[in-house]
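Review box. Two proteins, two foldings.
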Amino acid sequence: MAELSLSHVAHSVIGGRVFPGISGGERRRVSIACQLLQDPRVILLDEPTTGLDSMTANQIVVLLAQLAQRNRIVIVTIHQPRSELFKVFSRIAIMSRGELVFCGQPEEMVDFFSQCGYECPEYCNPFDIYVDFTSVDTRSSEREAATFNRMHEITSSYQGSAIYHSMLGKIVQSLQQEDKPAIPFKSKESPSGSAKLEVLLRRTVRNLSRDRMGVLMRLSQNLIYGLFVAFFVMRLDNDVSKGAVQDRIGIIYQSIGASPYTGMLNAVALFPALRAISDQESQDGLYSKWQMFLAYIFHILPLSILAIIVFSSFLYWTVGMHPDTIRFLCFTAVVLVPHIIGELLTVVLLGVVQDPYMVNTGVALLNIAGILVGSGFLRSTQQMPEVFQWLSYLTFQKYSCELLIVTEFHGLEFTCNTTKPLPGACLITHGNQIIDEGYPGALSRYTQDFLLLYSFLPVLLLLGMISFKIRDKLVRH
C-alpha cells in the first residue's frame, strides 16, 4: 500500500456503482496492488489507464515505471497516452493488424520514423502521430489499401533496420547461453494458512460491520418471525380441549421448520458476492477458496447465536412454554443448529453450483423432505415404510424434534374441560404420553440426540471444504 501510495485510504471503503468510495485512480491502484502481493517479477497490464482522466492515467503510468525500476518487468498495453509519458517507457512496441511495426527505445522510434519520411511535427504527441501512421483506415477500400501499404512499408523498413537486427542478435545471444538465470515469476514465500484465515476473517468481519442494515436484518428476521408465531398462538394453555398439545407441537414445528430458511436467505443474499471475490483472488494465488469458506462460516457464528437467543427469548417466554431456565437453554441450543445448518448447507452447495436460485430451491426442498421424513409430525416414524425410517436418521429434523418434544412435554401435566371435551381429548393427561406414543425411547436418547444433532455441523464443515477444493480445481481448468 505504501508502494502504491494507498496508505491514506487504508480504512476507506473501495465502493462501486451502488455507493461511492475511493476515486477511480485509487481503485485502479488497488487492483495493481492485489497483483503485487506475491511480489511478481513480470507484470502484464491490459489497458490500465482506460476510463481514467489524463492526470490519473499519467499517475498510473509513472507509478508503473517506478515499479519497473525495482527489479521488475512491466508490460503494458496502452491507448492514447500523454506526450509527457513518451520518455517514461524503456521500450515501445507498435502493433498493427497483428504485425510488429516497431519495437525499440523512445529515442530510436523518433529517429526511425524520421528516416522513413514520417516526421513528428513540433508540439505534437509522438504516440498519436506514429499510431496514425501505422493504423489501417477501413472507411473505404481505397483508403484501406493505401494505409495498409504504408503500414507494410514501415514494417519492412523496420525489419531491415539496425534496431531490428540488434534486437534479434540479443535474442540469439541469450538463447545460446547455457546457464540462463531463471526469472522467478512470483515469490514462493507465503504466509501460513492460519495467517491467511485470520486476514480473511478480519476483512469479512470489517465489511460486515460496515453494513449496519444487513447486521440489523440478520439479527431481527428470526425475531420478526417469532412475532408472527406469538401473535397467532398468544398464550399456551394447559387445557387439552383448548389445544394445549396441538399448539405446542405447532410451535416446535415452526421453530424447526423455519429457522433453516432464514439461514439460507442470509447465505443466498451475502455469499455469492464473496464467492466472486474469492474466485478472482484464489486464481491470483493469494489463498485457497476453502479458506474464504471457513472465514465466512466463522464470522456468521456469533451473529447466528445472538439472533437465535433473541428469537428464543422472545418466543419461549411470551407464549408461555415450560417455565424452566434449563429447558429454555436446551430449546435455544436445539433451534440454533437448524438455523446454522440452513446457512452452512447453502454455502456448501454454492461451492459447486453457480446459480444461487437453484441452490435456494434445492435447500428448500431438502428442508421440506427432512421435515416430512424426520419430524414425525405428518406421520409417526413407526408407521412409515422401513426405508423412510432409515432415511430419518440422516435428517437433523429427527433429532431436533425429538429433543424439543422431550424438552417441552416431559413432566408436563394437562387439564381437560369435561363440560365440552373434544372427542378423545381427555385421554391425554400427561406430557410423557405424547413422548411415549409418538417418540418412544426419546427420553433415554436425549443426550445422544444432542450429540448427533451437533455432529451435523462438523460434517457439513468438512463437506464445505471439499466442495470449495473441488471448485478450486474446476475454476482453474
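Next protein.
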Amino acid sequence: VLHGCCFTKFALIVFTLACLCVPCYGNRKFIEIDTSSNDVQKGKGKPVFHEQWITQKLDHFNGADSRVWNQKFLVTETHYRAGGPVFLMIGGEGPINAGWMAMNPGSAWLTYAKKFGALCLMVEHRFYGDSRPTVDLSTENLRFLSSQQALADLAHFLTVITKERGLTNSKWVAFGGSYPGALAAWSRLKYPHLIHAAVASSAPLHATVNFSEYLEVVWRALAAENPECPLLVKKAFDTLQERIKDPNNYDNITKDFNLCSKLQIQSEKDRAYILDALADNIMNTVQYNNDNREFEHVLDTNCTIKTVCGVMSDASLGDPYYRFAAFVRLRTITHLLKPCVKDLTYNANLQDLRNTSYSGPHGGGGRQWTYQTCTEFGYFQTTDSPNQPFGGFGLQYHVEQCQDIFNISAKTLYAGIDQTNENYGSYNIRATRIVFPNGSIDPWHALGITSSISDDLPAIFIKGTAHCANMYPARAEDLPQLTLAREHVFQLLQKWLKEK
C-alpha cells in the first residue's frame, strides 16, 4: 500500500505518496465544482479560475512520433499584477483538485500569490484525471507514463503559456507536494532556463524499492505521543498475525474488525493483503496527522495520532488486539463514514488493477501510480525493518505485484529505480533556488532532503508536522514552527524573485 501528496493508497496493493491529489495525495474525496461556478466567485462576480487545455506530444523524446493529446489546466488571475511572477502548481497521481484554486480558505501558495501579484496555474499530470493521452491504460500505452515525460510536458506548457500570454519577463516558480514536490524540484533541475525557483514540499527525491523506513517513522511518531503506544500496536498486530493463521479464527476476525464479508484467505498474498489493509488505518492516520485538509472535504481529519494512542491505551476495551480492532472500527464508521471494512482478496484487487479502462475501479489513478512505482520509484512500504510495529507484508509481496499486474520482473524494477536516481541525483541533487519543507512526523521525509545542502538548496524540517503540512491553509492552532516554516518559504521566494 503506498501512502501519497498527495502519495497514498489508491488500492491496497498500491503504495501511498502521493502526495496531492493536487498537491498532496491521500485517501480523500475530491471537491466537485459545478462548471457554472468555476468562473464566478459567489457574491463577487469575479473570475476565480478557468479550465483550459493545451496540446502535448505523446512522446517528447521521439521526433518521429507526431501523436498529440490534450492536457487540462486551471488558471486564475485573481491576484495577478502586470509584471508579477507565475506560480505553477504541479499535479500528481490523481485528478487536479479545484479546491487548491479557492482563496477561502487560502492554501499557502495562493497566500504567497496575493503578496507577490502572481498569475496562478495548476496543471494536471498526464494519464490522471481528465488528461488522457491514450484511449486506455494498457501496459503498452503506459510506457508513455513517466516523470521524464511529465517534466517535458511542463517544459512545453511553460513555453507555450509564456508566448501566448506575453510573459517573457516573468519568473516561474514551481510548487508541489509529495510526488509533485519531487517534480517541482526536478523541473528546476532539468529546465533551469524555464523554472526560476521551486518549493518542493514533502518531496521523496530518493527512489528505493524497499522503503522500510516508512514504518520506522510511524513507530517514532506514535512513540512521541506515548512511548507505550507503538509497543501496544505491535502486540496487537503480533496477535492478529498469529490468529489469522488459523481458519477457525476467520469468523471472529471478521466480526472484530467489522469486515464487509467473511474473511477469505486462500494464499499467502491474501494474508499479506489484509494485514496491509488493516495496518493502513494507522499508517494513513500518522501520515496526515493534524493536516488542515478540511477544505478538500477529507472525512478523517479529526482522526489523529492522539486518537490512535488514546484507543490503544484504553484497557477497558480488552487486550491490545481488541483495542486495535476498536480503532479500525472507529476510523471506518465514525471518521470515514463507511458501514464496514472492505476486504477484497488479493486476486480480486489484482483483477481491478488489471482493468485498463479509465472508468475502471482504479482508472482514476491507482493503476497508473502502481505502474510508476513498478517502473520508476519503488516506494514499497514493507515490514522488513525490526524497528516498526507491523508484520506480514514484506518486500517480496510488493515486488511480485509488479509481475502480477504488469509482467514487470524484479530485474526490470530494480533497474528502473537505479535509473531514476541516476537521472535526478537522489539525495545529491545539485541545483539552485529549491526549498525542501518536510515534517518530522511524515514518513516520507525519510526519502527527502531534511538538512540544507547549500544556501540555495535549503531544507526546512518542521518538528511535529506531517505530510505537506506547510501547503495547507493556515489556522490559529498551527504549531509555531509550522507558521515560521511558511514565513521562511515566503522570505526565500522574496529573495529569489529579486535575483536574475
